[in-house]
Sequence to fold (878 residues):
Amino acid sequence: MREMIDVAIIGSGPAGLSAAIALRKRGLRQVVVLERDSEAGGVPRHCAHPPYGLREFGRIMTGPSYAQRLADDARAIGVQIRLLHSVTQLLPDGVLEIATPNGRQRLQAKRVLIATGVRETPRSARLLSGDRPLGVLNTGALQAYIALQGLIPFRRPVILGSELVSLSAIATCRSHGIRPAAVIETNARPTARFPLTLLPRLLGIPVFLGCAVTAIHGTDRVEAVTLQSTDGGTTRDIACDGVLLTGRFLPEASLIRASHLTLDPATQGPAIDQFGRCSDPRYFAAGNILRAVETAGWSFREGQRIAHCLAADLEGRLPSASASLEIRAGDNLKLVLPQRLTSPSKALGKQTLELRVAQGVTGRLRLRHGDVTLYERPLTALPERRILIPIGALDLANLTGTIVAEILT
Amino acid sequence: MNSHLHSADRQDVAVIGAGVVGCAIARRFALTGARVIVIEKAADILAGASKGNSAILHTGFDAPSGSLEWQCMQAGYAEFLDIRERLGLPLLRSTAILAAWTEDEMSKLDQIAAKAWKNGVTDVRPLSPAEVLAREPHLSRTLLGGLLVPGEFLIDPWSTPLAYLHQAIANGATVLRETEVLSGRFDGQAWTLETNRGAVLAETVINAAGLWGDVVDDRLQVGRTFDIRPRKGQFVVFDKAAARLLSAIILPVPTERTKGIVLTPTIFGNLLVGPTAEEQADRIHATVEQATLEQLIAKAQAILPALADMPVTATYAGLRPATAHSEYQIRHDAAHNLIVAGGIRSTGLTGALGIAQHVAKLYNERHPHKRPESNAIWPTVALPVLAEHEARDWTRPGYGEIVCHCELVTKREIEAALTGPLPAGDSSGLKRRTRAGMGRCQGFYCHARIASLTQGRFTTPLAIGSVDA
Ligand SMILES: Cc1cc2nc3c(=O)[nH]c(=O)nc-3n(C[C@H](O)[C@H](O)[C@H](O)COP(=O)(O)OP(=O)(O)OC[C@H]3O[C@@H](n4cnc5c(N)ncnc54)[C@H](O)[C@@H]3O)c2cc1C
Ligand SMILES: Cc1cc2nc3c(=O)[nH]c(=O)nc-3n(C[C@H](O)[C@H](O)[C@H](O)COP(=O)(O)OP(=O)(O)OC[C@H]3O[C@@H](n4cnc5c(N)ncnc54)[C@H](O)[C@@H]3O)c2cc1C
Fold:
């Protein structure tokens, strides 16, 4: 026998919990959050630093207190959070396969919201060369060592990458006696914004821009890395006892890859319309599963917004998914989200198209349908920065087929 | 561990090296009542050549006809199938397709089929491109033809030797780890092996030191008869989502030097491409190199175009204990009560049980069995089954928590791997016993939890300190 509920939410991060709260507020009865971890809250649970919660709760919080607050609010309003519940398969008709310590379960929900977040790219998928000793970690793992297990994995790592999360990693290291040996970034300029990029230098950590790690050395543990400038020039070895791989986020979409849902190769997450609806309209998705990577606050608001769409859908008030326009990332764009627009209903759903570039570029951002330009503006864009286009600014009436987003240089 | 204990007890047989070959040999001797001690220098077993291979149970269809290698493969293959259920060892009856992509390769198929017949593998048969594609619809349509090798299967490269050694222990064998044989003296009756942890006395010594076989011969002062020339093989493992794209092992038409690059499912539900064949002097470090990994990925995508969208889960490299000879280097130095089982280059996972039979036969020319094999003990507690096509631990209640989410490894499995007669000796050993951390996130989610669950267990711990300290 299988359980039948109104809404199942996979993942108890900011997106999943804010959606759950919103759904309960709208009067939905059985809102069940399935969380594979032993505690609710998602990634903020191990981001021990501020700033979290400014817009949501009107004050600056650390990650763990933010996660706690979300989980408390959700439980207080009657959300059922089922911990140690790992969803192992997404099936048609809203049926979920779940592993629990008490045995396998199947559950059917009228709607499912996928909110499984992002992770970082590990060493293997970066095809990093060299030995494979202990001490090569992502930031998420480092944070979990320190914040969740109270353990230290290394004392003198090199840090790869200069996205924001790398600065967060430096902060984590410095407050626990870990002294990074270097920060290394392949690009000629750091990814994060000035003045944050000054932090490593202020802390006396050498920064190598335009350099790649060409080998990791070590028998049991990391002993050194070899650096080479990306123009093929000089190489040098840096002694270290760890390699911290930061950023290069990607959606935790393994469930989607293995399912009947359409995955967008550009975002590596599920393809959705502006209501967060997946290719199987019983499934919705919100939060960083949609794209790498946004903040907790963004994910929180997105969860809320898509929860309202989901509720509207249950009330039969969402436009049919069948009549939708495709949007594709064209020249100089890495991704566009949502991937489909269904005859826009202005009040509901995502209000903006989100775009990202893979490389820094200056030019004109354009949306076109065939030869007809729907939107155009000058743009200078950098990787990992938000590029937004208000959906309301587009006149989509009577359009079918595909819209291409591109940057003309 | 107390060094006097080892020196006081004289063993019948000391096996140097707990690679797959040493594990199989220890088992074979223990089954017939010999007092066996296994000496392994690493923190855990399978730390040498046996750590990274393609995990194919070969039929020997393309082995040198009539060679000892071929004999051992045939015998090893047969014994594996015979004992695997009793030892709880998984098997994926994948079959293999030897695929030809060029006219030149096509022209070799007849010859290969003829050799297979000669080698006693008589179910090998040609397949037309349409037949290949009917079996493997995702393969590139540029294929010209192939041979079906129905008996090539996939096994678990780590649980298998572990199970051999478990059975050896159940039958009285002792296993010493972090114990390196530094030198040896034969006094005409027995050997005294000096190790970093004291002396071990044994009547007969078996050198199964794999990548260090020649060095161990030197240390025993018996005169080496081969030099190990490590031959590296790099691999790329694709995401589990790719597994649905392929069911058979896709073998290339072999060249003189190597079996070539294989694209194969794994018993763990991944897809694997590799290995390369790169000679090197270093016996310890098996590095991966980005340019080579990229070539492997390109190769895999050429064979299976749908791989283009599949993420990479893991990369690794293994070292083959190659010599100047393709043949296994097995010799019995009866004057010194020594048997060397070395140079087991690229078929040792398959051949191990057969090598063990062969080595036991050499030994038994002088030493009768102490007890019939029928009295041997079969372990009652099965090892955890890590094969994706069988019921994994997480499907059964009471597992506590899932620690590694990508590979669905449970706390119960981790705890089991840390206890028993042969607990994991280091983090790699734990991975090999459980797969924890071997999935697509490579420890992003579980590394810290594993560090915590293994605190105080390993000489080289995952965590080097704690936050309070
Ligand atoms: C290392 C790292 C550091 C970051 N630092 C910051 C920061 O400092 N500030 C910031 O604003 N943002 C940060 N982020 C971005 C972060 O993704 C967002 O803050 C936010 O957590 C996204 O919320 P979410 O709900 O989409 O996903 P998450 O918070 O990632 O939550 C996803 C939840 O889904 C669960 N889950 C996944 N798969 C399953 C399954 N199959 N079954 C059941 N449960 C499942 C997970 O256990 C997790 O609890 C960071 C991200 C990472 C990875
Ligand atoms: C890339 C690759 C792919 C392969 N694919 C396959 C395949 O698909 N099918 C197949 O059948 N075979 C395959 N093989 C071959 C197989 O892996 C090897 O033949 C086998 O592992 C050799 O095992 P071994 O026990 O002889 O050596 P090893 O595994 O090297 O074992 C020797 C052990 O001795 C220990 N040792 C060394 N010196 C000392 C000392 N002084 N004191 C104590 N201990 C010592 C070492 O630490 C080591 O653990 C492959 C091999 C490679 C590298």
